[in-house]
């Protein structure tokens, strides 16, 4: 049986962010993943295709991944899904230039391993701390939306508030055990010519992902 999944990527903003649309082509519902910068353009384009917004999914709460959330919520009042530990960290007095003030009442807390359904499409959520305490990756179909945990080349930073290199190493080890056929869709494009790649290919080319020990990983990341 073919799942009616549509996954759309758009590269946006001064930090070369990737934002995503996850849509169910039967129910005509969609989620926005990490809406930032000019996200309303993608939102309007998806509406014109006959889809209705069901919610916002955040891989993490850094400013460059969610600064358009308030604008989207003004257009349509929908839940914003994030790991509970990420929202708790946002409320703890972290720097506002990294973690902007958002209407916490709109958030729905996720726990590791939670699943959400969008018509016939199901997404599951992997808690992958390291870049932030509540970073998460989203698995949908044969796709892994990896936020700032895993890039096609390297991984996310761990030197910002809430970052933890040991947690990042452990999160990458979890991702390395997923099926190699899953296609990784990162949170940034940077200099990478491809929009995505299979996990099995990254296990051959991504040095941080294939690190065999914490010491090796720390050396690669400058610790």
Task: Provide keyphrases for this structure.
single chain, Metallo-beta-lactamase, Chain A, 6-stranded mixed sheet, globular
CATH homologous superfamily descriptor: Ribonuclease Z/Hydroxyacylglutathione hydrolase-like
- Helix-and-strand structural type: alpha/beta
| Form type | globular
Q: Helix-strand pattern, N to C? A: EEEHEHHEHEEEEEHEEHH
Q: What is the fold named in CATH at topology level?
A: Metallo-beta-lactamase, Chain A
* CATH class value: Alpha Beta
For the biggest sheet, the summary is: 6 strands, mixed
The portion of residues assigned to helices is: 10-25%
Low-confidence stretches: none
Account of the 3D structure:
The chain is of the alpha/beta class and 223 residues long. It has one domain (5-220): Ribonuclease Z/Hydroxyacylglutathione hydrolase-like (Metallo-beta-lactamase, Chain A, 4-Layer Sandwich), CATH 3.60.15. It contains 7 helices and 12 strands. It has a 6-stranded mixed β-sheet with strand order 1-2-3-4-5-6. A 6-stranded mixed β-sheet has the order 7-8-9-10-11-12.
What is the strand and helix layout of this fold?
Layout: E1 5-12, E2 17-24, E3 29-33, H1 39-48, E4 52-57, H2 63-66, H3 69-75, E5 80-83, H4 84-90, E6 107-110, E7 115-118, E8 121-127, E9 136-140, E10 143-147, H5 165-176, E11 183-186, E12 197-198, H6 199-205, H7 214-220
Parallel strand pairs: 3-4, 4-5, 5-6, 10-11
Antiparallel strand pairs: 1-2, 2-3, 7-8, 8-9, 9-10, 11-12
